[in-house]
């Protein structure tokens, strides 16, 4: 028995996680991936206030054991692709990842593949802007940071800091992008409709859809309250999202990893692409695990090691909701709730909400993330709101 255990241990593959988050540690442990892989974590992170030596970082991780290299968030996905390419490991090419993350390049490629699904857009030029209203978003961004609606051209003079772009710029420079362009903005015509996100993975050029999740906002705001799985979209609309995603994947040449694509779904007319994210949708991993019994982190690790995840698309039994608790006014954080299973606290005591490092939208501040399940979407949402009322944040 002892000899069998040793043989099994030596057969384990090494997976290197670039700039892990606390969510990664919990999800990897929850999926028991440490029993199937030797997991290594490559610190430090990419903080928005600290200078970052991208080449030095890549040189530093080059000696760490790895049969596969992964990253789970925007700021590290390109780093992981560069590190994997250096070592000849599976994964999307840095060019494909960059073509997703740099929005002007992404929009140009989308326009080739699915022109009917792309809004009118241009690099922001205050002297030659669209007639308002229109939407402005960072050329490289994460979540909703720095994105805003413009109803009057005088609003273009209001600067929004983009810490994500400034910390991403040293990595993007390895792809030939200047720091000025990395910190630029895109303007786009307004889009409307329900919002949904398709997550899937690509292996050998073929897209496998894992699931489609609906996004819902706090009433009267543009701030996301929750993400509900599975989608309520009709079979026809789901097929349209999948077809659009397949065309984009082929045009980008994206392969050997997970990606997710956000859409507007209007009542009539074609779906419109919000953005393409060349990474796992880590926040939704607990929803998939709860309803399918498999984690998308398991899929991520398998692909990074050149393995077939063998995902079998099927309708889930029940519903699950990822819930985002927010505050809509700035405040000083005196205390936060005690740790709980599946609860991700996004702020820390001793700072104002506006001083926290967490990514927020222009109108609100994220306090916590958690998820609940139920036999129906309504039951899962009720449990989320009940749990939200029990979380004691001291905000003054």
Please tell me about this protein's structure.
The protein has 396 residues and is α+β, with helices and mostly antiparallel strands. It folds into three domains: 98 residues, Rossmann fold, CATH 3.40.50.20; 69 residues, no CATH class; 202 residues, D-amino Acid Aminotransferase, Chain A, domain 1 (2-Layer Sandwich). It contains twelve helices and 17 strands. The protein has an eight-stranded antiparallel sheet, with helices on both faces. Helix 4 packs antiparallel against helix 5. It is globular, with a radius of gyration of 21 Å. The N and C termini lie far apart (60 Å). The N terminus is likely disordered.
List the helices and strands and how they pair.
Blueprint: H1 2-11, E1 13-18, H2 22-30, E2 37-42, H3 54-61, E3 68-70, H4 74-86, H5 94-101, H6 103-113, E4 121-123, E5 134-138, E6 148-150, H7 163-172, H8 179-182, E7 185-188, E8 194-203, E9 206-217, E10 224-229, H9 235-252, E11 257-265, E12 272-277, H10 285-292, H11 296-304, E13 319-327, E14 333-335, E15 344-345, E16 365-374, H12 377-390, E17 394-395
Parallel strand pairs: 1-2, 1-3
Antiparallel strand pairs: 4-7, 5-6, 5-7, 8-9, 8-11, 9-10, 10-13, 11-12, 13-16, 14-17, 15-16
Helix pairs in contact: 4-5, 4-7, 5-6, 6-9
């Amino acid at each position: 028995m002892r000899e069998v255990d040793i043989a099994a241990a030596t057969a384990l593959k090494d997976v290197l996680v670039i700039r892990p988050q606390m969510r990664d540690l919990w999800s990897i442990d929850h999926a028991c991936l440490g029993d199937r892989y030797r997991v290594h974590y490559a610190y430090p992170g990419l903080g928005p206030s600290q200078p970052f030596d991208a080449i030095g970082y890549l040189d530093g991780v080059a000696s760490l054991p790895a049969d596969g290299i992964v990253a789970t968030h925007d700021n590290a996905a390109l780093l992981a692709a560069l590190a994997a390419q250096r070592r000849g490991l599976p994964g999307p090419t840095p060019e494909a990842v960059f073509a997703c993350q740099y929005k002007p390049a992404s929009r140009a490629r989308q326009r080739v593949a699915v022109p009917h699904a792309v809004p009118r857009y241009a690099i922001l030029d205050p002297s030659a802007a669209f007639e308002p209203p229109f939407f402005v978003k960072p050329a490289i961004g994460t979540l909703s940071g720095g994105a805003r609606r413009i109803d009057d051209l005088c609003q273009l003079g209001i600067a929004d800091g983009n810490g994500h772009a400034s910390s991403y710029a040293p990595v993007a420079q390895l792809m030939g992008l200047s720091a000025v362009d990395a910190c630029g903005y895109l303007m786009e015509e307004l889009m409307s409709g329900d919002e949904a996100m398709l997550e899937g993975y690509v292996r050998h050029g073929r897209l496998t859809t894992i699931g489609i999740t609906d996004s819902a906002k706090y009433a009267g705001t543009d701030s996301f309250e929750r993400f509900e799985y599975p989608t309520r979209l009709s079979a026809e609309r789901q097929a349209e999202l999948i077809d659009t995603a397949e065309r984009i994947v082929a045009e980008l040449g994206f392969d050997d990893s997970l990606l997710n694509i956000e859409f507007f779904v209007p009542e009539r007319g074609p779906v419109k692409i919000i953005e393409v994210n060349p990474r796992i949708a880590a926040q939704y991993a607990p929803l998939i695990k709860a309803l399918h019994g498999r984690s998308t982190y398991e899929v991520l690790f398998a692909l990074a090691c050149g393995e077939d995840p063998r995902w079998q698309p099927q309708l889930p039994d029940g519903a699950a909701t990822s819930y985002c608790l927010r505050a809509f006014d700035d405040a000083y954080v005196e205390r936060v709730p005690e740790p709980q299973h599946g609860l991700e606290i996004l702020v820390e005591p001793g700072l104002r909400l506006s001083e926290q490092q967490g990514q927020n939208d222009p109108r609100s501040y994220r306090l916590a993330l958690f998820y609940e399940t139920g036999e129906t979407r309504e039951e899962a949402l009720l449990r989320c709101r009940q749990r939200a009322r029990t979380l004691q944040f001291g905000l003054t």
